[in-house]
Design brief:
By secondary structure, the protein is an alpha/beta fold. The protein contains 11 helices and 12 strands. The strands form 3 sheets. The chain has a 6-stranded parallel beta sheet, with helices on both faces. β4, α5 and β5 form a beta-alpha-beta unit. α2 crosses α11 and α3 runs parallel beside α4. The relative contact order is 0.14.
Length: 316
């Protein structure tokens, strides 16, 4: 009976692991700290770049720590991301560096991790402050000011527009803090320029969804002058929508992230501007924050509230 129960348990664990879209893992050996990097969709070039940056850092510091890098299949699969974190707790990692798919939904499992003695550092998308406070948690956010970055992009676009012009905003997943902050930054810039925002709709960070939303906005507003996109994936979709609508050169598009795929479009003017928040370094900043805390034997409550990183305007 014991053998059968053990076998069934082993099969169950294997099934859970098989469900995760895990990247190649580098496990810690010889007592080194083990850090788990848990990202959003690895179909998004931004997170592929983040993963590459983290792996390159670990390779350079192989004697100091081991790394396990994980990601989910799409931007909204919070359930899969929660399961990955729970598995990392089972794996007894020393720290989790998390880019949460949802600012509120991930807080309970973060509490699970912290209660088990795992240090958690938040990158990319900030966890909800009220939800953290309710759980009595302090989780440092290591990353850029998204509102500031979007304001840089919006201000640059505004110079190409005039008061009264109409624009649309393609927001990321609306329950995420970074999506909300980027929309706020775009709104700040448009309000300052007296440009009219005719709509804010979620493109869920994805190119296909961004294309659908942009196409609808263009149909509903034939005099639309610009589309402000919360990330470059949606900007790629918006550019395609503008072309299909026969409005290339008439409707300006801006994005956010400065992924490689956007650079040719910046060069030829199909995308006016984007923001670089240094994807390759974001995970590294989070990993270094976690490693410094481990080295100093700090607990979760002793970690800093925030570490702000750079965000820069990128144009042609």
């Amino acid at each position: 009976m014991i053998t059968r129960r053990f076998a069934l348990k082993s099969l169950a664990v294997m099934a859970v692991l098989a469900a995760f879209p895990m990247s190649q893992a580098m496990a810690a050996e010889g007592g080194k700290p083990k850090v788990a990097l848990v990202m959003k969709s690895l179909a998004n070039e931004f997170f592929q770049t983040m993963e590459e940056g983290a792996k390159a850092h670990q390779k350079q510091h192989a004697a100091e720590y081991g790394l396990i890098a994980n990601g989910i299949k799409d931007e909204t699969d919070t359930t899969a991301q929660i399961k990955i974190i729970q598995q990392m707790i089972v794996e007894k990692v020393d720290a989790i560096v998390l880019a949460p798919a949802d600012s509120k939904a991930l807080v309970p499992v973060v509490k699970e991790a912290v209660d088990k003695g795992v240090l958690v550092v938040n990158i990319d998308n900030k966890l909800d402050e009220a939800a953290l406070k309710e759980k009595g948690l302090v989780v440092p956010f290591v990353g850029p000011d998204n509102r500031k970055g979007a304001r840089l992009v919006g201000d640059y676009l505004a110079k190409q527009l005039k008061a009264g012009d109409k624009v649309g905003i393609l927001e990321g997943v609306s329950t995420t803090f970074n999506a909300q902050q980027r929309t706020a930054g775009f709104q700040d810039a448009m309000a300052a320029a007296k440009v009219k925002v005719v709509g804010v709709q979620s493109g869920q960070w994805e190119m296909e969804k961004g294309n659908l939303v942009a196409s609808a906005m263009l149909r509903e507003n034939p005099d639309l002058k610009a589309l402000l996109c919360g990330n470059d994936n949606m900007a790629l979709g918006a550019v395609a929508a503008v072309k299909t609508a026969g409005k290339a050169g008439q409707v300006k598009v801006v994005g956010y992230d400065n992924i490689n795929a956007i650079k040719p479009l910046l060069k030829d003017g199909k995308v006016l501007a984007t923001a670089d928040q240094y994807a390759a370094k974001q995970a590294v900043f989070g990993i270094e924050t976690a490693l410094n805390a481990i080295k100093a034997k700090k607990s979760q409550k002793d970690l800093p509230a925030a570490v702000e990183t750079k965000v820069d305007l990128v144009t042609k």
